[in-house]
Amino acid sequence: MENKKLRDLAEVGEFGLIDILTQDFQLKNNNSILGVGDDAAEIRLNETESLLVSTDCLVEGIHFNLMYMPLKFLGYKAVSVNVSDICAMNGRAEQITVSLAVSSRFPIEALEELYEGIHMACEHFKVDLVGGDTTSSLSGLMITITVVGRADKNKITYRAGAKENDLIVVSGDLGASYLGLQVLEREKEVFKANPEIQPQLDGFDYLVGKQLKPEARVDIVSYLEKLGVIPTSMIDISDGLASELMHICKASDCSVSIYSEKLPLDDLTSTTALDFNLDPITCALNGGEDYELLFTVNQSDFDKVVSNPNLTIIGHVTSKDSGNFIIDKNGSAVSLKAQGWRHF
Ligand code: ADP
Ligand code: MG
What we know:
Elements (H helix, E strand, L loop, with lengths): L8 H14 L9 E3 L6 E4 L4 E11 L11 H17 L4 E11 L5 H18 L2 E9 L4 E12 L14 E5 L4 H18 L11 H8 L5 H10 L5 E4 L4 H12 L2 E5 L7 H9 L4 H7 L6 E5 L4 H5 L4 E8 L6 E3 L5 E3 L9
Bound molecules: adenosine-5'-diphosphate and magnesium ion.
């Protein structure tokens, strides 16, 4: 290390770092079907089914702030974001393990509250808590959840698989969680300046709810099954629509064109964005933590998808060399760039 020029994490970013660290690993076992690079790993179970495995780590001060994130919600959210990664593979979550690193400043009651939220999520998503690990940390709380799921091997959806002319679809609406976070941050600053003033969250329930208690879209996975639609590719939106579209393009060797006026935005998201002097479209593109599903379908599935109020067609897949564009209502195309969340 002494003679080498040391590289800064910020130079490569989160995804660059993952590539650097994992590039020399080859899968050795026949049943390891898919390793690093998708929402979950795939392990073949038998002739017809695969296991799906995914893990996510939430760190105090990075992913959550306990000034406004009640521990019960944190527990629920930690499970939900893991279940979301199994949904992104078109699978069903079945088991979780929960690992905690916790500083002594947390009383037992606080951790019980965290587990109340985990319990609520286990009931809601019908998953079993089957283990974990508990250790101390010098400061703060870190919670790591691993989820195991299952899927019919012919129905698993990868980030790879999108084909030219496929339709691009998102569930629910976008940007709400990011604006929920802006509202919570604003009220935190007001409270810090004057602890007598109570936070004003009235009227922002939907946005704050999306931020504090996101719901993995298990309903969409069931719905697609009922419709008989298997997406050609799928990912969940944790880092922002633009960033997730880039993952699909990279994995599927394609480009995308999306239409700004098609992006599903709740009215409250749009009005709140304007209150914060933010462009609602930018919030929909780059705001994180929506935990909606982003997927592509063959054009022949248009009729099935278009009739569902929970699904919106936002654009289509183009050939690799076409470039990625967002097209506004006047037809002008602007190059689509992923901002997303930067960890480093
Ligand atoms: P998601 O946003 O869906 O949770 P991530 O962006 O966290 O996915 O991770 C992308 C891929 O890289 C996943 O397949 C994940 O398992 C893998 N990955 C992330 N960090 C590491 C790591 N430190 N070592 C090995 N694989 C990793
Ligand atoms: Mg994911």
